[in-house]
Amino acid sequence: MGSERFYPEEAPVRKVHVNSFWIDEAPVTNRQFAEFVKATGYRTTAEIAPDPRDYPGMDPALAQPGSLVFRRTAKPVNLSDWSQWWEFCLGADWRHPLGPDSSLEGLEDHPVVQVTHGDAEAYATWAGKRLPTEAEWEYAAHGGHDDGRDYAWGHELAPGGRMLANYWQGMFPFSNTLDDDWERTSPARYYPPNDYGLYDMIGNVWEWTADWYAVPKPIEKKRPNACCTLDNPRGGRKGESFDPCTPQVKIGRKVLKGGSHLCAESYCQRYRPAARHAQAIDTSTSHIGFRCVI
Fold it and tell me: Are 135 and 233 in contact (CB under 8 A)?
């Protein structure tokens, strides 16, 4: 588990053991999520106006239902300022992933997006399942291989020029050459599965896990020949997961895995099993979904 060739939060490489589990073949789709909502009447976080008391300093005009939507820029921008391409769009939710004028027509078999961690947990509970731990997710993404490969299928991102996942080709966030055929999400089983028969473990949408975000700690052996395999590891504590850039905001962050259609060689090379990202549990976007385990 982990990598030492890309981003520091993925290190160190470590041995991990997880108990047996089943995992969904593909991310939960709009069709599946609609069945859940029809059966339960569930309302997602994005469909409920936020309470300004929970967000000190919040613009009262934004106390309306909505969610984050990616908007391609017209030209190169400062890549350290994500607000250049993310818009908090009033009326965006899982039924209207790109804003109030959008719909799910033709997207029934695409991964559901605009779901928070709580929304994903609610679906999993209804389905008699749960969200995977980060270790379980990463184990599944490797497809049974333990040879240090960077990607779910091998050592090359696009072997022979073949597109094996939905990610951004070109200069992010303004120029996408669409070599993979998709501007945004793609159908959940569009690309070949990995060697466990699992689809979209890489790219398309980020996926929620059950673990609070923390930077992995170095493994300390109590004695020279001690076993250093971590048994069913979990993430950090909620209090450790807060964003250090906004210490006044006490909203926990969970680990996302797998990268999305917005990951690019020019910006975010996180379309890999070892890659990870911290996401606030109250935040939904147009590039985050999930799958379940049991």
Answer: yes
Helix ranges, 52-155 (H): 117-126, 134-141
Q: Based on C-alpha coordinates, what's the Rg of the chain?
A: 19
Residue of 99, 112, 87, 101 lying closest to 31 (CA atoms):
112
pLDDT band at residue 77 under the 50/70/90 scheme:
very high
Average pLDDT, the chain: 94
Strand-pair category, 288-289 with 206-212: parallel
> Hey, which bits of 41-140 come out as E strands?
66-70, 86-90
What pLDDT is recorded for position 218? 66
C-alpha closest to that of 157 among 111, 225, 203:
203
Contact of 152 with 275, CB cutoff 8 Å? no
pLDDT at site 228: 73
Q: What is the token pair recorded at 12? A: 């160190």
Separation between Cα atoms, residue 282 and residue 115, nearest integer Å: 9
Of 63-67, 75-79, 216-220, give the lowest mean pLDDT range: 216-220
Residues 100 and 90: their CA atoms lie apart, in Å, by: 7
What are the beta bridge partners of residue 278? 255
Given a cut of 80, whether residue 134 has pLDDT beyond it is yes
96, 167, 151, 84 alpha-carbon torsion, rounded to 10°: -90
Q: In the block, which residue shows the tokens 């588990």? A: 1
Q: Residue 223: is its pLDDT beyond 60?
A: no
To the nearest 10°, report the CA torsion of 185, 84, 177, 169. Answer: -70
Number of H helices, E strands in the chain: 3, 8
Would you state the pLDDT for residue 217?
Answer: 75
What are 103's two structure tokens?
């719909």
Can you state the angle between helices 30-40 and 117-126, rounded to 10 degrees?
Answer: 70
